[in-house]
Amino acid sequence: MNRYNEHVLLVEDDAPIRNFIAFALQSEGFRCTPADTGHAALNLLLSEKVDLMLLDLGLPDLDGMEIIKRVREWSDMPILVVSARDQDKEKAAALDGGADDYLTKPFSATELLARVRVALRHLYKQRGLQTQTSLEVGGLSIDLKKRLVHLDGEELHVTPLEYSLLALFFKNIGKVLTTGYIIREVWGAGYGSDTQALRALMAGLRRKLEENPAKPRYIKTEIGVGYRLVDE
């Protein structure tokens, strides 16, 4: 049994995949409610308390992107997309639309359960930010009130842009942030889509954070999509 025991809504129209995922979740102690259409999923969300949704994008009645849009109008529950669509633009669109993570089929039960746990931990940390001013991952910590960063107990000198980038990651621990989202949050909505500036900023920050910037420990690259601050 896991320590969560949360209610997971599984939205998947492929019966073998749905059964595989449901078995994996239930074996770990999660309560799992299946739905094979988008409308069935939305009706369940209105009638039951759901802690996390696993969502296939290719449903027979509603596109998964539409479901994400509707749910995000009223809920911050983690949404983990499980889809055969493996194009980077599809992943980025789902994440920009409000999904917390994206898992491409086929995948193992181990990977699925790990992503579910990360998404739930991210939710709990997000909800605690109003009272929590100091956050830590491994030996890296940030004080959001004093605007200080420490690495292994030593204060780390970062530029204002580097601090803004790092604070954004700490406010979204474990979540994939697309390059477009990061640029809008750090530079502003009118900045455009200068990914070169983001790559340069990321490279400078990694040189300060990582023993080996080529194999980062803290901020991982999600190729073609964006970046993620690991949840250790």
TrEMBL record:
Any Gene Ontology CC annotation: protein-DNA complex
Domain (Response regulatory) spans 7-120
Q: Which GO terms describe its molecular function?
A: phosphorelay response regulator activity; transcription cis-regulatory region binding
Looking at the record, the residues that make up the OmpR/PhoB-type domain are 132-231
Q: Which residues bind DNA?
A: 132-231
Q: Name one Pfam family in it.
A: Response_reg
**Which residues are the signal sequence here?**
none
Residue positions of the PTM 4-aspartylphosphate? 56
What InterPro entries does this protein map onto? CheY-like_superfamily (IPR011006), OmpR/PhoB-type_DNA-bd (IPR001867), Sig_transdc_resp-reg_receiver (IPR001789), WalR-like (IPR039420), WH-like_DNA-bd_sf (IPR036388)
Q: Can you cite a GO biological process for this protein?
A: regulation of DNA-templated transcription
Q: Which keywords label this protein? A: DNA-binding, Phosphoprotein, Transcription, Transcription regulation
UniProt-listed PROSITE patterns: OMPR_PHOB, RESPONSE_REGULATORY
Role of this protein = May play the central regulatory role in sporulation. It may be an element of the effector pathway responsible for the activation of sporulation genes in response to nutritional stress. Spo0A may act in concert with spo0H (a sigma factor) to control the expression of some genes that are critical to the sporulation process.
What protein am I looking at?
Answer: Stage 0 sporulation protein A homolog
**Organism of this sequence:** Sporobacter termitidis DSM 10068
